[in-house]
């Protein structure tokens, strides 16, 4: 088992995010962490989430329930439970510390008592840095992201950083921006304050209909 890096602290991690840098590991058994500041950054526009007619219908059928910060550890474990992962012991421990301090959050998707999907990330100012997500049911990751985007918009967030742009995120409205443009977006987002607990989670009929708040 890899041992957490004692030189990397939760405070250092927050300062890195504020500079537009995030950590990764080569694998779960590699104890080393490296910093990433990609030339092209993935961003999920909070006012441009692509909610298809079929996905909206599935959400309104309410096959799942959604919670905020109910099982942060379970979400991170779900994200790490794959053959290849960048979540090592150091990262797992540090995000747990950030969650305890109120900086890291998780959106959970439940089917009864079973955790079937989720996304977690870090919040600073009006920026939410999405770290990873997982899905154990069809459309689970799409549904939890739809709730997350709607909720973050309502709570006054202006930036949803996805780090990289995957085909999955692009299908939901994700875009790539150049590093310089991203840092400008981040700087503006850090000038304000948003509270992820400012409002209750949206209900199934309001998902995708809320636009970013200008008063938060």
Description of the structure:
With 216 residues, the chain is an alpha+beta fold. The chain has 7 helices and 9 strands; from the N terminus they run αβββαβααβββαβαβα. The chain has helices spanning 10-18, 53-60, 72-80, 89-100, 140-154, 167-171, 179-190, and strands at 22-24, 34-36, 40-43, 65-68, 104-111, 114-124, 127-135, 159-163, 175-178. A 7-stranded mixed β-sheet has the order 4-5-6-7-8-3-9, with helices on both faces. Strand 6 and strand 7 (127-135) form a beta hairpin. It is globular.
Please state the average pLDDT score: 89
Low-confidence stretches: 1-5, 211-216
Count of strand segments: 9
Helix content: 25-40%
Helical/strand content category: alpha+beta
Strand order of the largest sheet: 4-5-6-7-8-3-9
Strand-residue fraction? Answer: 15-25%
- In whole angstroms, the N-to-C terminal distance is 44 Å
With helices defined by DSSP (H or I, 4 residues minimum), what is the helix count? 7
General shape: globular
N to C succession of SSEs: HEEEHEHHEEEHEHEH
Radius of gyration from the alpha-carbon trace, in angstroms: 16 Å
Largest sheet: 7 strands, mixed
Short description:
The protein has 216 residues and is an alpha+beta fold. 32% of the residues lie in helices and 24% in strands. A 7-stranded mixed β-sheet has the order 4-5-6-7-8-3-9, sandwiched between helices. Strands 1-2 form a two-stranded antiparallel sheet.
